[in-house]
Specification:
It is a single chain. The chain is mostly beta strands and about 600 residues long. About 10% of the residues lie in helices and about 35% in strands. The protein is built from 6 helices and 32 strands. The protein starts with a helix and ends in a 37-residue tail after the last strand. GO terms for molecular function: copper ion binding; hydroquinone:oxygen oxidoreductase activity. It is an enzyme of class 1 (oxidoreductase). Its EC number is 1.10.3.2.
Length: about 600
C-alpha cells in the first residue's frame, strides 16, 4: 500500500522528534538542515537540450558545508519520475546505517511523490567528501560536494589558504542515462560511453557549442587556493593538471596526507582530494584539464578532455588561447598513475594520528573480475551470446527485493545468504593473457554477504584479474568505514613476500582505493561500526554488472556498540527504483 504524502510527512515528523531526543547526547557539534528537491530539469550541452534528474535544479548539485562532529539533516523531496536514494559518500555514519543510502542494501528507493529525511552523523571525517544518488545510474546528474571543515576551535594542518573552490568532475550523456542503462542491462552487452566530461557542469573549449560556457576560476596573483576536488565521472579515472602550476595534495577522501607536491593528480570515480595551488605565474589564462586515464585492453572509454580556465585577475592582455598543460600524462600512462598513487602518505601527526591495525583476525583475498553469465539460447549481446557480468570472488551480486538491513534487523530470512567466500573458488594465474574458457569466465549470481563480529580486525587483499582479457583499474569503495591502504603491487599477490612490503607506519586512510590492472591492493580496518555496509566498484557499469557485496557487522556488548534503532518511517520496498514491480536484470529472483 502506498503511503500518502501527508501521512509520510506525519511519520517523518514523529520520527524526527523521537530521533532528535534519542540523539541529543550523540551529536557533539552543531546541527544543520538542508532541503533537496529532486526534479527533472532541462540542460543544454553539446548543441542539444535534454531533461535530467537534478537536486534543486543544479548540475552539479548543492554543496553541503559543516564542521567535523556536526550533524546534518537533509530532507529529500522526490518530485522525479522514479524512486531514488542518496548516499553520503565517505561519511561513516557510526551505528547509523539506516541513513547510508544504497538501494536494496540499507533502504528501498524513496518513491516519486514522497519525501525522506536523512540524518548524517559526522565523526572523524575532515576535508572533502561528497554525496550522490545511489539508485541505478542516477548519480550521473545527482551529486555534489560535502565539505567538512575542522572542528570548532581547530584549524587546518597546513597554512590556511586564502580562498577555497569546489571542483566537480562528471560525465555528460546526450541521451537519457536511465534509458541507456536499461538497454545495456536488458541485452547484456557493453554500455554506451559518455559524450563528454564536465568541470563544474561545463565541458569546456574542446567540445562543440561549449566554449562560451567554459568554467572559469578567477584568481589573484600571490594567493593560495584550496581546491576541493570530487570525481563523479561514471566509469573513468582522470588525470588532472593546471598548466604551469604545481599542485600540493593535502587530503584524500576526508583525511589528511603528508603534503605531496606534484604536477598532476590521478583521481578515480568516488575519490575526493584536497589540493593547494598558488597563483604564482605571470597573469594570464591557464587551462585546467580533466583527461581520462585507461589501462585496460578493451579501449572502450570516452577519449575526450574537459577543460576549465584558471584565469588571473588584473590588467593584462588576455592570450588568444590559454596555456596548455605540457605535463599532463597521456590516456594510457600506467606509470604516471602508479607513481602518483604510491606516493601518498598519511599525515600521521599528533593531532591526526594513525592507528593501523596490526593483529589481523580476518583475512580475505578477493578477486575482482569482468566475466559473463549464460543466457538462454545464447540470446544476449555479450560475447558468444552471453551476458556481460562482473564479480567479486566469482560472485555477481544480485539485489534483493527487500533491503538487506531491514531483513537483518528484523530477522527476515530468504533475502540474502551469509556465505560470501573469503577467497576465490579456484586459484590460478589471475593475470594470465589466456583466461577465456568458461571455467574462469562464467560467474555465479547471488546475494551473498560477509558477516563480521564487532571489533574484528579485517585485512582484504583485492586481486585484479585479466579474465576475458578485460583487466583494468577498479576503484573499490567501502561504505561505513575508512580503511588504511597498507600495500599495492603488480602481478599476483604473494602472501609470503608481498606483506613484507606493507607500510604500517603512515599508510593513507581512504574509502575508495584503486586496484591496479593485473595487480593487487591490501587494506585494513577494524569492524567497529555495527550495521550493514556496502562494498562495490565505483565504475557504475561494473557495479550494475555485479561487482559488489555487503558486510554485516554484528552488534557489540554495549549500547555504544549497537545499531541505532530505525526511524519511524522508511521508504517502502514495494517497487524497484525505476520499473515498478518488474525486477531489474540483476535483482534476485525468489
Amino acid at each position: 500500500m502506498k503511503v500518502s504524502f501527508k501521512m509520510n510527512l506525519l511519520l517523518e515528523l514523529l520520527g524526527f522528534l523521537l530521533l532528535s531526543e534519542m540523539l541529543f547526547c550523540i551529536a557533539q557539534g552543531n546541527v544543520h538542515y538542508y532541503d533537496f528537491l529532486l526534479k527533472e530539469s532541462n540542460f543544454t550541452r553539446l548543441c542539444s537540450t535534454k531533461s535530467m534528474l537534478t537536486v534543486n535544479g543544479d548540475f552539479p548539485g548543492p554543496m553541503i558545508r559543516a564542521h567535523k562532529g556536526d550533524t546534518v539533516y537533509v530532507n529529500v523531496y522526490n518530485q522525479g519520475r522514479y524512486g531514488v536514494t542518496i548516499h553520503w559518500h565517505g561519511i561513516k555514519q557510526p551505528r547509523n546505517p539506516w541513513f547510508d543510502g544504497p538501494e536494496y542494501i540499507t533502504q528501498c528507493p524513496i518513491p516519486a511523490g514522497t519525501n525522506f529525511t536523512y540524518q548524517v552523523l559526522l565523526s572523524s571525517e575532515e576535508g572533502t567528501v561528497w554525496w550522490h544518488a545511489h539508485s541505478d545510474w542516477t548519480r550521473s546528474s545527482v551529486h555534489g560536494a560535502f565539505v567538512i571543515l575542522p572542528a570548532e576551535g581547530t584549524t587546518y594542518p597546513f597554512p590556511k589558504p586564502d580562498e577555497e573552490q569546489v571542483i566537480v568532475f562528471a560525465s555528460w550523456y546526450k541521451e537519457d542515462v536511465e534509458t541507456l542503462m536499461d538497454e545495456a542491462l536488458r541485452y547484456g552487452g557493453l554500455t554506451t560511453l559518455s559524450d563528454a566530461y564536465t568541470i563544474n557542469g561545463q565541458p569546456g573549449d574542446f567540445y562543440d557549442c561549449s566554449n562560451e560556457t567554459t568554467y572559469r576560476m578567477s584568481v589573484d596573483y600571490g594567493k593560495t587556493y584550496l581546491l576541493r576536488i570530487v570525481n563523479s565521472v561514471m566509469n573513468t579515472d582522470m588525470f588532472v593538471a593546471i598548466a604551469d602550476h604545481n599542485l600540493t595534495v593535502v587530503g584524500w577522501d576526508g583525511s589528511y596526507v603528508k603534503p605531496l607536491e606534484v604536477s598532476y593528480i590521478m583521481i578515480t570515480p568516488g575519490q575526493t582530494m584536497d589540493v593547494l595551488v598558488t597563483a604564482n605565474q605571470s597573469p594570464s589564462y591557464y587551462y585546467m584539464l580533466a583527461s581520462p586515464y585507461f589501462d585496460g585492453q578493451a579501449d572502450d572509454f570516452d577519449k575526450s578532455i574537459a577543460s576549465a580556465i584558471f584565469q588571473y585577475n588584473g590588467n593584462y592582455t588576455p592570450p588568444s588561447i590559454p596555456v596548455y598543460p605540457s605535463n599532463i600524462p597521456g590516456f594510457y600512462d600506467v606509470g604516471a598513475a602508479s607513481y602518483y598513487t604510491t606516493k601518498l602518505r598519511n599525515l600521521a601527526s599528533p593531532e591526526h594520528p594513525v592507528d593501523v591495525p596490526l593483529n589481523v583476525t580476518t583475512r580475505m583475498y578477493i578477486t575482482v573480475s569482468i566475466g559473463m553469465m549464460h543466457c538462454p539460447n545464447d540470446s544476449c549481446a555479450g560475447p558468444a551470446g552471453n551476458r556481460l557480468a562482473s564479480s567479486l570472488n566469482n560472485i555477481s551480486f544480485a539485489n534483493p527485493k527487500l533491503d538487506i538491513l531491514e531483513a537483518y534487523y528484523r530477522h527476515i530470512s530468504g533475502y540474502y545468504e551469509t556465505n560470501f567466500p573469503d577467497k576465490p573458488p579456484h586459484l590460478f594465474n589471475f593475470t594470465s593473457e589466456d583466461l577465456l574458457t568458461d571455467n574462469v569466465t562464467i560467474s555465479d549470481q547471488g546475494t551473498r554477504v560477509k558477516v563480521l563480529n564487532y571489533n574484528e580486525t579485517v585485512e582484504i587483499t583485492f586481486q585484479g584479474t585479466n579474465v576475458m582479457n578485460s583487466g583494468e583499474n577498479h576503484p573499490m569503495h567501502l561504505h561505513g568505514f575508512r580503511f588504511y591502504v597498507v600495500g599495492t603491487g603488480v602481478g599476483n599477490f604473494d602472501n609470503v613476500t608481498d606483506p613484507l612490503t606493507y607500510n604500517l607506519v603512515d599508510p593513507p586512510e581512504a574509502n575508495t582505493v584503486p586496484i591496479p590492472k593485473d595487480g593487487w591492493a591490501t587494506i585494513r580496518f577494524v569492524a567497529s561500526n555495527p550495521g550493514v555496509w556496502y562494498m562495490h566498484c565505483h565504475f557504475d557499469r561494473h557495479m550494475s554488472w555485479g561487482m559488489d557485496t555487503a558486510f554485516i557487522v554484528k552488534n557489540g556488548n554495549t549500547e555504544e556498540s549497537t545499531i541505532l534503532p530505525p526511524p519511524a518511517y522508511m521508504p517502502p520496498c514495494e517497487t524497484d527504483s525505476l520499473y515498478g514491480p518488474r525486477q531489474s536484470m540483476f535483482q534476485k529472483e525468489e
